[in-house]
Amino acid sequence: MKKYLLLPILSIFTVCAFAESAISVSPVRWDEAEAKADALLAQMTDEEKAGQMIQAERRYMKISDITKYCLGSVLSGGGSAPGKNTVDDWRTMIEKMQAAAAKTRLAIPIIYGVDAVHGHNNLAGAVIFPHNSGLGASASTQGTFEAARETARAIRQTGVTWTFAPCLAVARDIRWGRTYESFSEDPQKAAAFGIVSMRGLHDGGAVSSIKHFAGDGGTAFGTSKKTPGFLDQGDTKLSEEEFFRLHLNQYKRAVEDGALNVMASYSSFNGVKMHENRRFLTEILKEEWGFRGFVVSDYAAVEQCSGKNYRDNVILCVNAGIDMLMEPIRWKQAYRSILYGLKKGLIAQERIDDAVRRILTVKYLSGLMDEPIPAFEEIDEAAVREKARKAAEGTFVLLKNEASLLPLKPNISVCILGPAADSVGVLCGGWTIEWLGKTVNPAVGGKTFREAVTQFLEAGGGAVTDHPDEADVILLALGEEPYAEFFGDAADLSLYGDKALKGNRAAVEAARKAGKPTVTVLVAGRPRIVSEEIKSWKAFVMAWLPGSEGADALVNALWGKVPFVGRLPFTWPVSSETSAETESRRSETVLFPYGFGL
Prior knowledge:
Layout: H1 27-41, H2 46-52, E1 54-57, H3 63-69, E2 73-76, H4 87-102, E3 111-114, H5 132-135, H6 142-157, E4 162-163, H7 187-203, E5 210-213, E6 235-236, H8 240-256, E7 261-264, E8 268-269, E9 272-273, H9 278-288, E10 294-296, H10 310-320, E11 325-326, H11 331-343, H12 349-365, H13 381-393, E12 397-401, E13 413-417, H14 424-428, H15 449-460, E14 463-464, E15 473-479, H16 504-514, E16 518-523, E17 539-542, H17 550-558, E18 572-573, H18 581-584, E19 590-592
Parallel strand pairs: 1-2, 1-11, 2-3, 3-4, 5-7, 6-8, 7-10, 13-14, 13-15, 15-16, 16-17
Antiparallel strand pairs: 8-9, 12-17, 18-19
Helix pairs in contact: 1-12, 2-11, 3-4, 6-7, 6-13, 7-8, 10-11, 13-17, 15-17
């Protein structure tokens, strides 16, 4: 087998004050956990083993099913929450689930998983941190570490111990609907920030999941079979050498740093779905790299594989190296398929034992076997919001500042235009309370941009006016609708194209007609095409998706209370057609180069 050298990686400067609940991933701890897993595995029936390999969604199961099937895991998909979505509702649900697990013959706890990708974003009232594209613009990894650690503490407070994060994808075409989940187009930067995020989650006591293994950020435009969709879950078409350089080596580094779980990618590599690619899941990840944790499939991804039917797909994926099947709805069928494959000799006993050993090892290593429900920790919400604000302040990128218009003076009169000015949901983006996010009232606290500006100016002797002719400066707040995954794929990245906020065009025209100095703020998960519009703006700021505290953070940057330190983690193209990596590196197709920032 070919050997591939690990690319040099950015230095990671992070101060870690390890919490009592921190997960140690030292070799000694791995050995101890594995020995305990082996001892427990020796006592298990095949039915109990199959149950441990299943992850069901809370909406499509009964709590008694945990006892009946000895289920290994339960998850909440995006927007799936119990009761009125309070901390108490979550803890009560998980207490009941763990009580059901305790009734099984061997009393093996479930491990509960959520997509907490920028805070405990399923929970009402959660503090929402910046998405990864913004964190990747930061000059320091400290905000990334704090975001991950506080996310871990937040989910543990509700009884959850596993989050499907961080995303190590390298987004090479910003038309991809998951670009904001990527730290950078640069694999070295994505690795550096992703590993810090993983460390932060472990320090906070949560099991991490590095995803999506591998190549999801490199799919070719037009290869997606999702509707709507152009790129997401498509095919990455590269030589193996390029695939390793751009999309795989960050996972090798994370494995060496103590990765606990890997989530397989929906995408394909040169026509072969990663979920059934034994070469990458087993030969490279587990055998060559020595990964000791477990591999989980993505949400219902088994159905997309190349078998003759669902049962064949389950067998195909397990044999390829999938250890736990995230089959939210068809989990009983997946359970039966595992047992069928074992009985008929289509899945070896050794493969089943290996999968369960890995799952049990992580359960022991994380402390779950000793403490199925984390002890309740009171969290100082104000302190966490302060951390989220500071993290956001490091993400903003100043792209234009004609005549040094910024920082603004505190005693001026401003007119705020644009649809991004009045929505906390737009500041937060997708994966916020609901899978796709919400434009209106996402129930996460925080302020709108208009509220934050008004409050600041009223305290400093300035004013906000609704009349452009009365203003000294126009603040133009443009943005994207919240979205997730293939719903965010976009062929047209103009300010008025796919997923752009509907009021962008009218606001741009109103600002142009006013003829006043205009500071434009773009709230988006990726660059949008501004090649013509920017000519009439005096200043331009890329705000990414800064989260629930993003408005206050943005005000602090615009008025000079904190400096602009962000640098572009993605090349900014001049047109949608030049968004792909093969085109956007030519100087004539680049509006702002990778790493730019004033």
